[in-house]
């Protein structure tokens, strides 16, 4: 009731580089935060650093400061914090006021990227009323960003070609050379390189294939094959399809689908994400399936939020909402139907579950994956500490924040190993790569498996034995 | 762009900090520093000059030393979830964040304590303890994020504090940083340390007594079972009346939480509670816990009261998941306000419980009068209100009206005998309201204690004290007052006459250099002390007995003040479960008063007819039932005290939750009259249990007795007393065991007990509560005792009363010059070894030894009998081998030259405190805690 504003805000002398109107972080959402701080203990970067500005509350406070013109978008602290956030959204899941943190974070990142894009064409970084301008990215970053966002992930043919070349790199001995010559360290790609997934021999290319239900047909579902899941993790798709078939589903892989756009929306390229969203909506909306099933947590959460992503788009908004309605995470789907329990054979292994952020926090799916693991006879589920604290993968985070990513990866694997389980189960490519990379670094034998892979193995054992 | 008054710290300082803590742990960037200018109160203060995030207590101490040396003030910050502005800087300087100090360093289950760093998150400590069957009981709504350091800084409460007490009841010792950068522990975790209760006064000091780096916290066993019911009432007033009725009926649930329709609206959807949201609808969350037996019946009794008071629906939350959801919703409430309004004022006041319905009527009237929405979600069982005034800060008029409501609620609470903060603290928010509650002299005493801990005003400056009354100025005023009060000087020879004029000749007696007076009123007491002060004469307050420290041989004049005529009841509304009485009231008289209303003070001491409440509090007396009810430290809510110069001050209040200023009553519990004379005391009281029974166990040997205590301590049983009795006697250089005749012995029924030399060590375990719960305790205990070949006897009614009467009489050694009474306190896990050791030393010095011990608490009372020299040797040796050895009572020849107090922690602080409060050294000068 009394405040002593001795350190009151100074009035603004120099015009600050603020937010522009396009994709501006919502002031209403920012103001929903009452600064209670209950999010702090759930935030991975706060847990690692102990710094207020590295907490969700601190980051919202920084956004608010830019929104209200107290600091500029050019603030190094602001930019660093928008980048350091993992967008794991653990804070959202615990926020009593329901602050939609992901939405304002993604918008803030987009603001920074838009200003950097503007910086490419501007003569000097200055403030122009309607168009905030930041210094352009270094050339290598610019090239990488354009290559990845505009080329690789917008066109799945290009992505598959790229994946083939990576496979070649792994098989030709080039990887051996690169890892042992020290060249990776030289170009600061050594951390990132360990994350490179072993690329599957066959890719899952969606061409309208239909895999018929085994037994009585109860549902028809479509599967989004995505980008990295379709190449590096095509064996997970195969497992997913078999598990769905075992549960009376006709499974369709419609053509013309692409990447879900998660990397774009999380990385401050909302327009890139929107282009992908429109393509996917068009590819799926006429199918008339019971559900569109997703086996990657990050994709699932992005697909479920197409409505929000396209909320300003008068033509696409309603279609996006209808599309998102149909999206079901595989664990969510399997536990919502009368699952085929009889077909599961015993798997006598110890498993610990690492919760993907975009499953646990963004989609609030926490009980279902455990329910599925417990459904497998003789499988022993050993809970780890901090199972829902981000593993540090978070899309391109390994590239943008290698140090924090490594710290969190080590913390996660330490917690997982402490359970003594022989398998770490998860449900997202980023997590799977991060965990496998960290385990490899430590020379640990523990396996990383998707939950659907374990289900598939259990069904297949039964088939083999009968 | 820099905040106007930002001064970048000197490079040298930053370099030194980075060197000590690592550069990642030092924040100097201005935009980053801005995020430290607010806590959950959103009372924007100012940006700090720099922030340090130490990882160890030593790093914290280094940061403090460097910053203080360079002249910067320091604000300690936990998670910044406080809502009174306690953890934000107003004078810039260093913010010392404890976010990285999150180690749980040690957990001792048998001794029931844990050593934790200040940054440990409350919920994470509990997550760590739960699989072990224990909890850290305080559960503030912020517990998901808030730290132990922050919890203890504000003496945080929480929904379950109704049964378990607030943070101060669960903190055994703290480590604080002193202005010179040294780390000092206020204790070692053993509760019976001698000297002033510094721990008690640091808890709730909101960081103004220096940053707390580590704490020893008490562990409480998790209950075996619980029940949660949601009761719906048509109005908040009806729900409040039900709360009062439940308390009045003598059942003390674990929680009684009220949430009105606005509160329901805020959390209903997000937590899937599915509650009706109609205007007026009010939710009362009721929780009871304990052993399974009798719990449903207890709950049903409470629910019947709710029905009688108009509850229209009762919904049990059956599964742990449902219960967790209810509590998550309740605790998320303040944070969920973002769903209802852009801003709120969360008013936190506390009133005697019976005034709650009236306060709710006032709040409702204010809401209509000012036309601002108010939400009520509060700890009803404790009388702790939280009207939440919703407003839009962009609307100046509405903001003004919201503040007017908040201020009116504060004033009304004080009017009803309440206080201005029950659990959030004063911080920045309420500092200017403190004078409404306290006299200038009260504030001066607060400031004097402040000056002891914070002599340069660099620890969290400009908090708690009213903005116009800087604490160091207040402390200086008090010193000047004490100096001036010596005038006009009174010749010592004229003192007795002056006292006779004040009190009447019948109440003043002189023999040799000693004058004994008996004031009849508190005012007379104060005037007498003032007269003594002017005469420069020492005063010795006396309750029922003679303090052993009283120096009869002194030739200096001293005035002994007998308080026995101060026997009035000050305030007793039985349904509040509190009582305020004058210090001279005997314990027996208090018991009679309480018993007439079905209530009790669970303190059992010998000589209750003579023992006065003031004396018992000043001596921090304890009884066997502390295992279940706690001790006087936990029950003293407030007191009035006569200071050295005769000034009467009021400390605390007669409400069960209070963080309005420092918890100064704690300093006086166990202070032995050395800081001031207790004139009146307000206590928490308890309903008499519906049933009580005791199991007396004759144990074959000490080892099996303590093995049983270990098992009992690890179980989910909640006995109210576990008393161990043993006697040693020298027989041909070996120790044999003997129970003195006046201990009720048990007929040896089993053949096995006849083969061991009888009498044997005895264990007496008492259970109180619902008859079924009591029955269960005794049944299970008998089962546990089975393997140990113990003979058990079940005692109830008159037999039980007689047993405890006899047991308590053991404490009364009379005035045998051959006997010394010694208190030996240890961590409970060490009690068996300590008893063993004491026995062997007794044998060595050819002493008879009898002891009775609070087996769960680790406190043993030893009665040693022998020659003066042997007793002296015994005490000296025991004190060398064990830390907390206190010579309670012995002949002057035994005492001569011995330091009777055992280990006294933080001696510099103790000494400074005594000097600051009693600069002339005239309050009971023969008691010297610090050797």
UniProtKB/TrEMBL annotation, chain A:
Pfam family, one: CCG
Enzyme Commission identifier(s): 1.1.99.14
PROSITE patterns per record: 4FE4S_FER_1 (PS00198), 4FE4S_FER_2 (PS51379)
Cofactor(s), names only, from the UniProt record: [4Fe-4S] cluster
Domain 4Fe-4S ferredoxin-type: 23-56, 75-99
Classification via InterPro entries: 4Fe4S_Fe-S-bd, 4Fe4S_Fe_S_CS, Cys_rich_dom, Glc_ox_4Fe-4S, Helical_ferredxn
Entry keyword set: 4Fe-4S, Electron transport, Iron, Iron-sulfur, Metal-binding, Repeat, Transport
Keyword Ribosomal protein belongs to the record: no
Record's catalysed reaction(s): glycolate + A = glyoxylate + AH2; (R)-lactate + A = pyruvate + AH2
Cofactor binding description: Binds 2 [4Fe-4S] clusters.
Keyword Iron: yes
Function, as annotated: Component of a complex that catalyzes the oxidation of glycolate to glyoxylate.
Protein name: Glycolate oxidase iron-sulfur subunit
């Amino acid at each position: 009731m009394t405040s002593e504003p001795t350190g009151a805000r100074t009035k603004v002398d120099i015009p600050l580089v603020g937010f522009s109107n396009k994709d501006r972080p919502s002031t209403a959402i920012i103001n929903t935060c009452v600064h209670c701080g209950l999010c702090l203990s759930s935030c991975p970067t706060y847990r690692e650093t102990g710094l207020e500005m590295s907490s969700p509350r601190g980051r919202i406070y920084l956004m608010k400061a830019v929104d209200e013109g107290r600091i500029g978008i050019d603030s190094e602290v602001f930019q660093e914090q928008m980048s350091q956030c993992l967008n794991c959204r653990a804070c959202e899941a615990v926020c009593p006021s329901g602050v939609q943190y992901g939405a304002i974070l993604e918008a803030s990142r987009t603001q920074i990227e838009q200003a950097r894009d503007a910086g490419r064409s501007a003569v000097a970084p200055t403030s122009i009323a309607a168009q905030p301008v930041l210094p352009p990215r270094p050339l290598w970053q610019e090239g990488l960003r354009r290559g990845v966002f505009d080329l690789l992930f917008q066109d799945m043919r290009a992505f598959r070609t790229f994946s083939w070349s990576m496979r070649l790199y792994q098989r030709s001995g080039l990887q051996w050379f690169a890892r042992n010559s020290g060249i990776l360290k030289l170009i600061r790609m050594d951390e990132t390189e360990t994350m490179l997934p072993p690329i599957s021999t066959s890719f899952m290319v969606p061409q309208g294939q239909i895999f018929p239900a085994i037994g009585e047909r109860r549902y028809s579902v479509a599967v989004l094959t995505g980008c990295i899941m379709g190449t590096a993790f095509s064996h997970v798709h195969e497992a997913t399809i078999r598990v769905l078939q075992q549960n009376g589903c006709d499974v369709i892989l419609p053509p013309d689908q692409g990447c879900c756009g998660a990397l774009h929306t999380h990385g401050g390229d909302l327009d890139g994400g929107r282009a992908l969203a429109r393509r996917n909506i068009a590819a799926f909306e006429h199918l008339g399936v019971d559900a569109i099933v997703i086996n990657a947590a990050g994709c699932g959460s992005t697909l479920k939020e197409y409505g929000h992503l396209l909320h300003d788009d008068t033509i696409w908004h309603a279609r996006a909402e209808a599309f998102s309605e149909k999206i079901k995470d595989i664990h969510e789907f399997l536990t919502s139907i009368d699952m085929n329990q009889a077909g599961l054979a015993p798997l006598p292994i110890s498993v610990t579950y690492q919760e993907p952020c975009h499953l646990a926090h963004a989609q609030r799916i926490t009980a279902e994956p455990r329910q599925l693991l417990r459904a497998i006879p003789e499988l022993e589920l050993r809970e780890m500490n901090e199972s829902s604290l981000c593993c540090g993968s978070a899309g391109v985070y390994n590239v943008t924040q290698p140090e924090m990513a490594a710290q969190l990866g080590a913390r996660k694997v330490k917690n997982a190993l402490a359970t003594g389980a022989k398998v770490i189960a998860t449900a997202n490519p980023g997590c799977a790569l991060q965990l496998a990379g960290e385990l490899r670094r430590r020379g640990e034998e523990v396996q990383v498996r998707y939950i659907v892979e374990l289900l598939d193995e259990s069904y297949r054992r039964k088939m083999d034995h009968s | 762009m820099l905040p106007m008054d930002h001064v970048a710290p000197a490079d040298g300082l930053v370099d030194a900090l980075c060197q000590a803590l690592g550069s990642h742990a030092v924040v100097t960037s201005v935009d980053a520093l801005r995020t430290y200018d607010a806590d959950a109160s959103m009372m924007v203060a100012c940006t700090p000059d720099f922030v340090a995030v130490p990882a160890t207590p030593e790093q914290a101490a280094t940061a403090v030393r460097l910053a203080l040396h360079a002249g910067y003030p320091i604000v300690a910050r936990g998670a910044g979830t406080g809502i009174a502005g306690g953890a934000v800087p107003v004078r810039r300087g260093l913010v010392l964040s404890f976010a990285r100090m999150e180690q749980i360093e040690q957990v001792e289950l048998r001794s029931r304590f844990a050593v934790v760093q200040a940054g440990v998150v409350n919920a994470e400590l509990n997550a760590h303890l739960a699989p072990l069957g224990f909890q850290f009981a305080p559960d503030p709504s912020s517990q998901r994020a808030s730290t132990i350091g922050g919890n203890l800084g504000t003496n945080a409460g929480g929904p379950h504090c109704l049964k378990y007490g607030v943070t101060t009841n669960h903190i055994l010792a703290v480590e604080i940083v002193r202005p010179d950068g040294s780390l000092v522990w206020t204790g070692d975790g053993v509760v019976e340390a001698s000297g002033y209760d510094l721990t008690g006064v640091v808890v709730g000091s909101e960081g103004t007594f220096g940053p707390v780096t580590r704490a020893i916290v008490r562990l409480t066993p998790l209950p075996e079972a619980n029940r949660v019911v949601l009761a719906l009432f048509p109005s908040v007033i009806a729900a409040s009346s039900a709360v009062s009725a439940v308390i009045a009926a003598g059942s003390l649930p674990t929680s009684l939480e009220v949430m009105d329709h606005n509160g329901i609206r805020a959390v209903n959807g997000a937590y899937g509670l599915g509650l009706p949201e109609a205007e007026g609808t009010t939710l009362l969350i009721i929780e009871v816990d304990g052993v399974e037996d009798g719990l449903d019946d207890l709950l049903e009794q409470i629910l019947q009261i709710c029905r009688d008071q108009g509850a229209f629906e009762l919904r049990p939350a059956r599964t742990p998941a449902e219960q967790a959801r209810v509590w998550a919703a309740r605790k998320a409430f303040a944070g969920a306000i973002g769903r209802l309004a852009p801003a709120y004022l969360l008013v936190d006041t506390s009133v005697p419980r019976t005034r709650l319905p009236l306060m709710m009527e006032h709040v409702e009237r204010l809401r209509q009068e000012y036309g601002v929405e108010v939400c009520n979600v509060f700890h009803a069982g404790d009388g702790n209100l939280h009207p939440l005034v919703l407003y839009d800060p962009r609307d100046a008029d509405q903001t003004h009206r919201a503040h007017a409501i908040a201020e009116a609620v504060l004033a009304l609470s004080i009017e009803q005998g309440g206080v201005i903060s029950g659990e959030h603290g004063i911080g920045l928010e309420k500092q200017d309201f403190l004078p409404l509650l306290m006299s200038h002299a009260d504030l001066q005493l607060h400031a004097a204690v402040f000056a002891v801990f914070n002599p340069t005003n660099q620890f969290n400056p400009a908090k708690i004290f009213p903005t116009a009354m800087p604490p160091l100025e207040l402390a200086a005023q008090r010193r000047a007052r004490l100096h001036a009060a010596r005038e006009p000087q009174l010749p010592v020879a004229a003192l007795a006459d002056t006292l006779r004029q004040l009190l009447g000749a019948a109440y003043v007696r002189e023999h040799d250099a000693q004058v004994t007076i008996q004031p009849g009123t508190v005012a007379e007491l104060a005037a007498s002390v003032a007269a003594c002060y002017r005469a420069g004469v020492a005063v010795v307050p006396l309750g029922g007995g003679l303090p052993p420290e009283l120096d009869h041989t002194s030739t200096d004049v001293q005035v002994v003040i007998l308080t026995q005529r101060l026997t009035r009841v000050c305030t007793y509304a039985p349904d509040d479960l509190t009582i305020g009485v004058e210090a001279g009231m005997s314990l027996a008289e208090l018991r009679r008063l309480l018993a007439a209303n079905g209530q009790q003070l669970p303190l059992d001491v010998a000589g209750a007819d003579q023992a006065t409440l003031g004396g018992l509090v000043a001596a921090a007396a304890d009884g066997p039932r502390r295992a279940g009810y706690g001790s006087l430290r936990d029950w003293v809510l407030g007191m009035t005290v006569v200071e050295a110069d005769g000034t009467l001050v009021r400390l605390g209040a007669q409400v069960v939750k209070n963080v309005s200023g420092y918890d100064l009553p704690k300093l006086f519990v166990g202070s032995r009259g050395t800081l001031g004379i207790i004139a009146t005391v307000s206590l928490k009281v308890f309903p008499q249990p519906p049933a009580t029974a005791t199991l007396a166990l004759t144990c074959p040997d000490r080892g099996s007795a303590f093995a049983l205590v270990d098992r009992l301590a690890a179980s989910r049983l909640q006995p109210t007393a576990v008393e161990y009795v043993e006697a040693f006697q020298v027989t041909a250089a070996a120790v044999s065991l003997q129970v003195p005749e006046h201990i009720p012995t048990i007929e040896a029924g089993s053949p096995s007990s006849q083969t061991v030399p009888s009498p044997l060590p005895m264990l007496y375990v008492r259970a109180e509560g619902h008859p079924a719960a009591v029955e269960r305790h005794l049944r299970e205990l008998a089962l546990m005792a089975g393997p140990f070949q113990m003979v058990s006897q079940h005692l109830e009614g008159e037999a039980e009363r007689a047993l405890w009467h006899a047991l308590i009489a053991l404490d009364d050694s009379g005035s045998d010059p051959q006997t010394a009474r010694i208190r030996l306190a240890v961590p409970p896990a060490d009690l068996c070894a300590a008893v063993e050791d004491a026995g062997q030393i007794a044998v060595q010095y050819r002493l008879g030894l009898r002891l009775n011990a609070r087996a769960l608490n680790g406190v043993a009372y030893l009665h040693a009998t022998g020659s003066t020299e042997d007793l002296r040797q015994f005490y000296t040796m025991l004190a060398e081998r064990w830390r907390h050895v206190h010579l309670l009572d012995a002949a002057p020849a035994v005492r001569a030259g011995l330091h009777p107090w055992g280990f006294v922690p933080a001696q510099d602080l103790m000494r400074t405190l005594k000097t600051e409060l009693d600069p002339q050294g005239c309050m009971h000068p023969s008691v010297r805690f610090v050797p």
